[in-house]
Amino acid sequence: MAKHYDVAVIGAGAAGMMCAAVAGQRGRRVVLLDHATRLAEKIRISGGGRCNFTNVGAGPANFLSQNPHFCRSALSRYTPLDFLGLVKKHRIAWHEKHKGQLFCDDASERIIEMLRAECAAGEVSWRMPCKIGSIEAVGGGGAGFHITLDTGDITCDSLVIATGGLSIPKIGATDLGYRIAKQFDLQIVEPRPGLVPLTFDGPSWEAFAPLAGIALEVEVSTGGGGKGKGKAQRGHFREDLLFTHRGLSGPAILQISSYWQPGTPIVLDLLPEMDVAEELIAMKTTVRKQLGNVLAQWLPARLADGLLLANGFAPDARLADMADAKLRKLGDAINRWAIVPTGSEGYKKAEVTLGGVDTRELSQQTMMANKVPGLYFIGETVDVTGWLGGYNFQWAWASGYVAGSSV
Q1: Is the pLDDT of residue 80 over 50?
Q2: What is the 3-state secondary structure (H, E, C) of 203-220?
Q3: How buried is residue 8: exposed, middle or buried, by Cβ count under 10 Å (0-12/13-18/19+)?
């Protein structure tokens, strides 16, 4: 005989454990299922091992989705202050970094221990590691689910899918959540890597290929045309940029990568505090330096030379000899450098997965599938993706809390 539970949660990550803990503490009989041998590896490696567990400013504007308003309900019902209250309850020391990012003082393991303790308080059962065979709706739907497992079959009234996305496959990411959604005829927004370094090649990148290791604060933008289905959302960030052997990375690029559409440019302002053209033109009559030396006052010298060569300027050309029109061209190349990435580093380097279960298929109040009673999707499996900086964890906590309160 299959063992029966009120709730089965597939995926023992951030969203799954939150959901299981909330449901268990409401008196539901809950079981957590996961194929991994090590619990919550994505929490463990996050934030450089200190887990950037939320952001104090998290709100709907910090998330991408074909329906940008879908996340509003969950985020308002379980806020960063709510999660911080849980952290304080478990006496986990924390600190705030720039832009509202909250980190553990100690290792990420403290957050995992906290969630496990909350699950224990709800008397949650575990099947981990276990291999899922099939999932079937009982009696054609509406009467729960039957799940075949290598550890013994189970049945449940409510089934929550918290399997995450496709990012970082080396720690066990799979497409199981999407396959389950398709099995029940739910629409999927095409997944793709998010918060990921961008790659460049070809002649336009040759001058910059040797610049790996250079970092500086920039403004970066891409996209436009409004929000919603079929329209690219516009992204604009001021963050650090890092040149790599294969292209560009750093927080600025990870942020903009979620908004970038293949074949379109990103626009970089390498000196956001300065109108470079106006500054150069004003200096012409008083400064007798070479162009490369002038730019090296404001930019790393190797980057200054690379920009000059890429735009047809000799680094040893004298500033005083340059026509105003040419200096304006150079200013544009620095303040409005438009360049088209050839791709990204893919899921192996992506911190999150964009896309997922279409939010039009789900109730924003409960996270339940509208046409499959008892079936819920939460966390990264859903087409809601946050910015870099603790936002995706906040979505995991909030969506997990909402589903856990409903099942």
Answers
A1: yes
A2: HHHCCCHHHCCCEEEEEE
A3: buried
